[in-house]
UniProtKB/TrEMBL annotation, chain A:
The lineage of its organism: Bacteria, Bacillati, Actinomycetota, Actinomycetes, Kitasatosporales. Pfam families: ATP_bind_1. It comes from the Bacteria. It comes from Streptomyces cupreus. Keywords: GTP-binding, Hydrolase, Nucleotide-binding. One of its GO terms (molecular function) is GTP binding. The keyword GTP-binding applies. InterPro entries: Gliding_Motility_GTPase, Gpn, P-loop_NTPase. Belongs to the GPN-loop GTPase family. This is ATP/GTP-binding protein. The keyword Nucleotide-binding applies.
From TrEMBL, chain B:
InterPro entries: DUF742. This is DUF742 domain-containing protein.
Length: 200, 119
């Protein structure tokens, strides 16, 4: 069994008072775990939830008890932003059917960064649909994969049918500065929505 | 990332750890609720999972999600244990619940400043 971690920086600074969370969402293998790992100050952690899939066997009249269950993994990391404030990033799978998970994840979240892959743009629709359903504002970051064609952002915006105000940026999930910039685009957008953006 | 990996060290079924309960005794625990262990209550009488949780939390503050991750417990199970330990006075939460309202411009500005400072 795991024993208590030895390293001191596993724990939060004693002065931290507030914790906030952002979701990093996207389809399978789009780079969520990489993105979280690049930015986290702690070794990224993983928790698992056993989900009963919504709608599974709803038309079964034989009274069978065994529902379909799936294990969903959440990867998450932490960034201490100042002495009082810590930010958690949760890499969250995008499947719509995990309704209860989405309720847990979106509750209290500031917003979401959708990671997208230009080779598989259509797979991002389900994720964006779930976020819209839960009323969670989001920005989209194109994770740059080697060998992917360099699409123009306005072509991608059109293909994804984004609202004009939804930020769309490129990022490299392996790169700390690039990933930080993607988060900054998201948070600027969130702040702009409140009408309080101070330009830096 | 989605995976079907099951932690090899989880020998006890979740419902045994929680005495068969699927829901915590309180509904205020978020993934990022910050937990502090009180150090003046004895751990006698706690089951092994709660004892591990207390031992994990005693050196410093951690979020609900981190506690679940370090103990290789599903978040739902960790919440049941944490709520029990709050009821018994072993654990207190630091941040007001919920920690921040998403519409709070001051919090967003602080997040933005903190991220910009990392560039």
């Amino acid at each position: 069994m795991d024993s208590a971690p030895a390293s001191d920086d596993v724990y939060l600074r004693p002065s931290v008072q507030t914790a906030v969370k952002l979701l990093i969402v996207g389809h399978f293998a789009v780079g969520k775990t990489t993105f979280v790992g690049t930015l986290s100050e702690i070794r990224p952690l993983r928790t698992e939830e056993v989900m009963t899939e919504a709608g599974a066997l709803v038309d079964d009249l034989a009274g069978m008890r065994d529902k379909t269950t799936t294990t969903v993994a959440l990867d998450f990391g932490r960034l201490t932003l100042n002495d009082r404030l810590v930010l958690y990033l949760f890499g969250t799978p995008g499947q719509q059917r995990f309704t209860r998970l989405w309720q847990d994840m979106t509750q209290g979240a500031l917003g979401a960064l959708v990671l997208a892959d230009t080779r598989r743009l259509s797979q991002s629709f389900e994720v964006m649909g779930v976020l819209e359903e839960h009323g969670l504002p989001y920005a989209v970051a194109l994770n740059q994969f080697p060998g992917a064609a360099g699409h123009q952002l306005d072509e991608v915006r059109e293909a994804l049918d984004l609202l004009p105000e939804t930020p769309l940026v490129r990022c490299d999930a392996r790169d700390r500065v690039s990933s930080t910039r993607a988060l900054i685009s998201l948070v600027e957008y969130l702040l702009n929505r409140t009408g309080h953006l101070e330009h830096a | 990332m989605t995976s079907r990996r099951r932690p090899a060290d989880r020998l006890v079924r979740s419902y045994v750890v929680t005495d068969g309960r699927a829901h915590p005794t309180r509904n205020t625990l978020d993934l990022v609720t910050l937990l502090i262990a009180t150090d003046d209550l004895p751990l006698t009488g706690l089951n092994p999972e709660k004892r591990r949780l207390m031992e994990l939390c005693r050196p410093g503050a951690l979020s609900v999600a981190e506690v679940a991750g370090h103990l290789s417990l599903p978040v739902g199970v960790a919440k049941v244990l944490i709520a029990d330990l709050m009821d018994s006075g072993h654990i207190v939460t630091r941040a007001p619940i919920p920690a921040a309202r998403p519409t709070d411009a001051r919090i967003l500005q602080e997040v933005l400043d903190g991220l910009r400072a990392r560039l």
